[in-house]
């Protein structure tokens, strides 16, 4: 066995001192660049123990003592010799957690390990004596404790210490927001943490930035030039409140926020797998848009989707809502085993439900008791039992022909107003309760012990006696489960939901592992704020719009996203919220934004999915089936991205290139990457080309053809601000250069335009020049970024 | 970045000229999509900046010295019959047409056939080849010529019995969607060696497998790690070609103006992503030149074209083999070829020879060509499929074939650190079950990563609340096939 002492070996003390030096230099700097001495001893229970628990105990704890070392009690820790109190420099534990990934000595050996700040916390703790209070008992995990409301520290005017305005485009700093309101509670919790990080809040965003940010966040579309002008002329508090209210009431709000929910619901228009046929589920997508627009209380929103069919007097709307779990991919490949497909769908439903409502990664417990979180394998199958009641969805049409497998399951005919009386949508329906057994090692072919429906013991109890108007639920069925999920006693659900919304708005959620609130997940950066939002959400009648309103009217949200170099260095991810959010738009928003800029956006809502032009041959023959891709007719290709058909085996490439998921499973958070394929998409995808051409045709047709005027208008449509002198110059130069290049050139240029018709020689040159200007503007960094 | 001289962006090449040549991944620093660099640094950027800077993607190694720097992965969609190509079964041939003994099918699932089906021996002859005496069927005469390069594993097994789940399982270690494919894991771990091309390129002959684009998906890894299909017809890469009427010069003017405007914005916003965006557009511009050049086989000698059996301008596996060589020559990390139509439930006697003719010659030419160019030394070539086929004859068709078989099939490896001429693993007399040295899909993937210098247990990514690996919690490196 490896001697723990031996680990020290020839551990470069030099290397270590260097590390600590860099750590301190990079940390604890104030915005003005002066050192802030951070000599406070970290809180053992709150800061230190959770790190040891998360990163060390799996291998050096009760269940395993790798290399003879345990770190889960004061005595064991000291006996192990890896910590020298008051001397982090000589502590092997500290050395190892700071080593680079890939270093053979690094701990933990697998995974991301501790970040900079976490290493500093443990370093500080050791330097201050590695104090492990005798009375200490491992606290229950924070996320399983009910949210608590604690008194808000009084921090005065949220902008009191803000520096001078750094507005873009020469606009005045907007009026101060200082009145006592629920949103100022947000600001106090945020501001409280800034000094300890050596940060200062940014000044308020310039009105043109704020109005653009708010439009993307609430409706997923850019503001019209008129809306920008109105708000820039009157950026008062009252005007902002009106703007927020108007956007929350806009039907496009539902289209923007449904996208987020449909990622979670793994909504798609095809089965997935080899037999990737299209299926009709779009009425569920429309239900989500409508429910969000109506601000359906989230508890109701939950209950209808999980068990709308079981509600007393369930009508078509409640039944359509149950499409949520019909979104599970279905394997109907010839030769597949119906029972296996059925079980896979059940497992998908349990995992998705746990991720969406509990922020818990239950799938570990499918094969064994969860390693880190208090969920046993038995509890996994008790949850599965709630779902083990519905009709089979893939079956043989003739029992002895394996190739006769077909997609089955209940459908609802869509009568007006949901459809035309012919179209259908997939719904859930109760068949019979099947006995549920634990699958040994997660394999359905190894059924073990019988279990009854039930919920995890660590959480609040399941109430099968329901007293609300719906009357008592006779059984532990899906309805009881749905009600249990949104029981105000559930410590997780409200936190999990508001955390994800926060992440949508700020780019980084307060708990930066929105899919995992367990012991292995991150702890909230602002726990009191998270709890305050969660409690407010439930108290506010589970209203999404109230929560969003509260957040977007906070000063924190309204900060400028511009930063100075110090601020960027001190907090590159903006974890402490000393500035406003700034990040690339989502795939659908990039499309919708361009459609809106070009004036081509078709606002029609709802209905069967649309098919924009895409390169030929992508929907090809698969598994003996040929799928033809027919571009939607007139106007429809220019509807919003949320309506684009999602074929799981061949999703629309222009969305995928911007990190849209293929919806084969529940996606909590999309990536946000940058690749050359994105540049090619925006430059050459026929849809974007068509938009730039539409803009060019508009420009050529105008009689007030002063180039600078059109350039200024377009620039404003793309960025919500006028161009600066130099920016205008670049574009005018481009226009002139391209017009000259296109004048009388021998190679064939653009001869005619779909809407404009044939172009004469002069028009050809102008068109070519305007096309280049339009393409440039549609590809601008600022155009695809939320400011 | 704060001091940007606007003069710098002038000139015929605009912003592109002075940009340091970054590789496909390096250009993404500052965003989340950053392969090895991100893996190695993450939040430790400040803590150990010096170490991070010294480990560049594509240089050094991740966990241990690599014997392979790149991979050409040949996937036969539909699953060829190992019993007619690699796993000779004289007993099965002898008992051809007899009912299958019950004890052999007990407890086993088949996709289509019943358990009372008849045994089906191979109608093709097998022979030993090369110094190693590697046993191959007469359907692969050219491959026989390079038999000493191959390490054939005849004891593969998997978990899934249907195509799409089995394809997903082979590629991502999971029989359903959502996980990254092998190629994405590899580029995530190792980054790229070429500034102008993606690190992970996919080439198709015929339609993609039933799992569709999810076979080259990045799953939860950053999007830069998705496989990029290069196509022989239409745009080689989707949206590669400028729209009609917009010349290369026109595009250059657009990109120059775009670069200038973005830099002006960068000065005001200090947004670190601006630099990324600019380099992304320059990479795209370079791809517009480099990809068509790459995809054109005209520059290859007549001799090479004949060796591979290519037909320029057509879609074929042979063309793709030659393209694969051109891609790895240019530093692409992982090239995956998908060849369709190997699902021979019926008419195996005519369809299998025809498919073998498509692949036999080009594969042999590829291995020889790589060797001649000194590339085979550090290029791993993998030939695999999602599962194998049954020793039972499937007789519900006009002419018989074989059903899906997950419990025993064959793959082979060659090049980059693989011991050529090895035969690993054994199946029973019928080829129904493995009797010696079983190799699970996780073991194969662990071995591939191992050859690339990656410890499969340590290449992890945190998602959905846990550390994910390509090999889940399994996988054992098959040392017997390593040099």
Description:
The complex is a heterodimer of chains A (787) and B (483). Chain A is mostly helical and 787 residues long. Chain A folds into five domains: 4-133, no CATH class; 150-164 and 182-197 and 491-578, no CATH class; 208-250, no CATH class; 259-485, no CATH class; 686-786, no CATH class. Helices cover 41% and strands 4% of the residues of chain A. In chain A, helix 3 crosses helix 6 (116-127), helix 8 packs across helix 9 (225-233) and helix 19 crosses helix 21 (544-552). Chain A is globular and about 85 Å long. The two termini of chain A are 56 Å apart. The model of chain A is unreliable at 1-37 and 159-180 (pLDDT under 50). Chain B is α/β, with parallel strands linked by helices and 483 residues long. Chain B has one domain (60-242, 301-481): Alkaline Phosphatase, subunit A. Chain B has helices spanning 15-18, 35-41, 49-54, 82-85, 90-94, 102-105, 141-144, 163-172, 182-190, 248-269, 273-295, 302-308, 317-329, 348-372, 441-451, and strands spanning 70-76, 126-129, 134-137, 150-157, 200-205, 228-230, 334-339, 379-384, 388-394, 401-405, 409-415, 423-424, 426-427, 434-436, 439-440, 461-463, 466-468. In chain B, strands 1, 4, 5, 6, 7, 8, 11, 12 and 15 form a nine-stranded mixed β-sheet that branches. In chain B, strands 2-3 form a two-stranded antiparallel ribbon. In chain B, helix 10 packs antiparallel against helix 11 (273-295). At the A-B interface, helix 2, helix 6, helix 16, strand 7 and helix 24 of A face helix 2, helix 3, helix 8, helix 10 and helix 11 of B.
């Amino acid at each position: 066995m490896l001697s723990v002492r031996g680990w020290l070996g020839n551990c470069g003390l030099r290397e270590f001192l260097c590390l600590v030096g860099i750590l301190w230099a990079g940390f604890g700097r104030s915005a003005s660049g002066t050192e802030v001495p951070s000599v406070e001893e970290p809180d053992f229970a709150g800061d230190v123990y959770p790190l040891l628990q998360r990163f060390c105990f799996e291998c050096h704890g009760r269940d395993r003592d790798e290399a003879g070392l345990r770190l889960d009690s004061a005595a064991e820790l000291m006996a192990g010799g890896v910590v020298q109190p008051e001397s982090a420099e000589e502590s092997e534990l500290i050395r190892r957690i700071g080593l680079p990934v890939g270093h053979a000595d690094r701990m933990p050996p697998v995974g991301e390990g501790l970040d900079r700040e976490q290493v500093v916390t443990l370093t500080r703790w050791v330097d201050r004596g590695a104090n492990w209070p005798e009375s200490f008992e491992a606290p229950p995990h924070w996320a399983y404790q009910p949210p608590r409301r604690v008194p808000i520290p009084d921090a005065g005017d949220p902008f009191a210490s803000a520096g001078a305005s750094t507005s873009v485009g020469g606009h005045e700093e907007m009026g101060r927001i200082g009145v006592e309101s629920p949103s100022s509670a947000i600001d106090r919790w945020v501001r409280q943490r800034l000094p300890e990080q050596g940060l200062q809040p940014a000044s308020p965003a310039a009105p043109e930035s704020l109005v653009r940010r708010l439009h993307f966040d609430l409706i997923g579309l850019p503001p019209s030039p008129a809306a920008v002008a109105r708000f820039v002329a009157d950026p008062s508090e009252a005007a902002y409140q009106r703007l927020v209210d108007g956007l929350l009431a806009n039907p496009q709000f539902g289209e923007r926020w449904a996208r987020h929910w449909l990622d979670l619901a793994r909504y798609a228009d095809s089965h997935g797998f080899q037999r990737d046929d299209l299926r009709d589920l779009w009425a569920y997508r429309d239900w989500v848009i409508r429910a969000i627009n109506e601000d359906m209380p989230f508890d109701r929103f939950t209950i209808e989707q999980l068990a709308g069919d079981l509600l007393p007097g369930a009508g078509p709307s409640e039944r359509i809502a149950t499409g949520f779990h019909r979104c599970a991919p279905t394997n109907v490949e010839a030769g597949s085993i119906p029972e296996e497909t059925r079980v896979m769908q059940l497992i998908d439903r349990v995992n998705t439900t746990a991720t969406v409502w509990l922020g818990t990664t239950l799938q570990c417990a499918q094969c064994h008791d969860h390693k880190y979180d208090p969920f046993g394998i038995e509890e996994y199958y008790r949850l599965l039992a709630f779902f083990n009641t519905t009709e089979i969805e893939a079956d043989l049409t003739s029992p002895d022909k394996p190739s006769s497998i077909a997609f089955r399951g209940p459908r609802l005919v869509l009568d007006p107003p949901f459809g035309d009386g012919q179209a259908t949508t997939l719904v859930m329906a109760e068949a019979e309760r099947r006995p549920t057994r634990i699958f040994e090692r997660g394999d359905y072919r190894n059924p073990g012990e019988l279990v009854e429906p039930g919920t995890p013991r660590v959480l609040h109890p399941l109430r099968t006696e329901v007293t609300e108007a719906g009357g008592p639920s006779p059984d532990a069925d899906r309805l009881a489960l749905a009600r249990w999920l949104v029981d105000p006693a559930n410590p997780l659900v409200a936190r999990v939901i508001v955390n994800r919304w926060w992440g949508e708005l700020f780019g980084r959620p307060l708990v930066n592992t929105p899919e995992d609130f367990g012991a292995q997940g991150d702890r909230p950066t602002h726990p009191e704020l998270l709890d305050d939002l969660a409690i407010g959400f439930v108290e506010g009648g589970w209203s999404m719009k109230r929560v969003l309103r509260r957040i977007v009217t906070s000063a924190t949200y309204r900060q400028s996203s511009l930063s100075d170099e110090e601020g960027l260095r001190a907090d590159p991810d903006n974890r402490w919220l000393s500035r406003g959010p700034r990040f690339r738009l989502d795939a659908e928003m990039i499309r919708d934004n361009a459609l809106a800029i070009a004036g081509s956006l078709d606002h029609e809502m709802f209905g069967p999915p649309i098919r924009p032009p895409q390169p030929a041959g992508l929907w090809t023959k698969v598994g003996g089936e040929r799928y033809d891709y027919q571009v939607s007719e007139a106007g429809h290709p220019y509807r919003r991205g949320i309506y684009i058909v999602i074929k799981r085996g061949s999703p629309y490439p222009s969305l995928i290139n911007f990190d849209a998921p293929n919806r084969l499973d529940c996606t909590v958070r999309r990536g946000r990457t940058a690749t050359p394929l994105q540049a090619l998409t925006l430059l050459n995808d026929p849809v974007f080309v068509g938009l730039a051409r539409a803009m060019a045709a508009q420009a050529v047709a105008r009689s007030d053809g002063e180039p600078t005027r059109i350039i200024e208008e377009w620039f404003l449509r793309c960025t919500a601000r006028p161009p600066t002198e130099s920016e205008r110059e670049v574009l005018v130069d481009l226009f002139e250069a391209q017009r000259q290049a296109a004048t009388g050139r021998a190679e064939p240029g653009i001869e005619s335009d779909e809407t404009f018709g044939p172009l004469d020689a002069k028009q050809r040159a102008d068109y070519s020049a305007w096309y280049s200007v339009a393409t440039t503007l549609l590809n601008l960094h600022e155009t695809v970024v939320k400011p | 970045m704060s001091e940007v001289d606007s003069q710098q962006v002038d000139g015929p090449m605009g912003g592109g000229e002075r940009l340091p040549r970054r590789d496909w991944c390096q250009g993404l620093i500052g965003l989340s999509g950053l392969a090895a660099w991100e893996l190695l640094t993450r939040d430790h950027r400040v803590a150990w900046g010096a170490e991070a800077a010294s480990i560049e993607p594509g240089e050094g190694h991740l966990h241990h010295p690599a014997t392979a720097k790149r991979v050409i992965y040949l996937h036969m969609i539909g699953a060829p019959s190992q019993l007619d190509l690699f796993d000779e079964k004289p007993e099965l041939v002898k008992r051809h047409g007899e009912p299958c003994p019950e004890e052999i099918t007990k407890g086993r699932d088949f996709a289509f056939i019943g358990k009372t089906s008849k045994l089906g021996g191979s109608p093709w002859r097998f022979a030993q080849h090369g110094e190693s005496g590697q046993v191959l069927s007469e359907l692969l005469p050219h491959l026989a010529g390079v038999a000493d390069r191959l390490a054939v594993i005849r004891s593969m097994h998997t978990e899934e019995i249907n195509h799409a789940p089995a394809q997903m399982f082979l590629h991502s270690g999971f029989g359903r969607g959502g996980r990254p494919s092998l190629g994405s894991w590899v580029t995530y771990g190792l980054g790229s060696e070429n500034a102008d091309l993606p690190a992970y390129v996919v080439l198709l002959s015929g339609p993609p497998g039933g799992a569709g684009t999810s076979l080259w998906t990045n799953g939860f890894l950053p999007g830069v790690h998705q496989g990029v299909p290069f196509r022989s017809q239409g745009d080689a890469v989707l949206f590669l070609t400028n729209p009609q009427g917009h010349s290369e010069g026109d595009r250059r003017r657009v990109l120059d103006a775009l670069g200038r405007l973005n830099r002006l914005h960068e000065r005001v916003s200090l947004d670190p992503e601006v630099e990324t965006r600019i380099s992304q557009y320059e990479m795209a511009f370079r791809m517009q030149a480099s990809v068509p050049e790459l995809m054109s086989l005209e520059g290859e000698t007549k001799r090479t074209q004949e060796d591979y059996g290519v037909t320029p301008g057509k879609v074929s596996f042979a063309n793709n083999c030659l393209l694969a060589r051109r891609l790895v020559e240019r530093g692409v990390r992982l090239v995956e070829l998908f060849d369709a139509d190997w699902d021979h439930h019926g008419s195996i006697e005519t369809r299998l020879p025809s498919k073998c003719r498509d692949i036999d010659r080009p594969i042999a030419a590829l291995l020889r060509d790589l060797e001649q160019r000194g590339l085979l030394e550090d290029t791993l070539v993998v030939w695999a499929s999602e599962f194998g086929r049954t020793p039972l004859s499937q007789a519900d068709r006009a002419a018989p074939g074989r059903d899906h078989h997950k419990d025993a099939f064959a793959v082979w490896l060659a090049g980059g650190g693989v011991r050529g001429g090895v035969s690993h693993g054994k199946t029973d007399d019928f080829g129904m079950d493995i009797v010696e040295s079983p190799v699970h899909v996780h073991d194969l993937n662990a071995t591939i990563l191992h050859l690339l210098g990656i410890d499969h247990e340590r290449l992890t990514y945190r998602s959905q609340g846990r550390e994910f690996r390509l090999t889940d919690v399994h996988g054992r490196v098959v040392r017997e096939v390593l040099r």
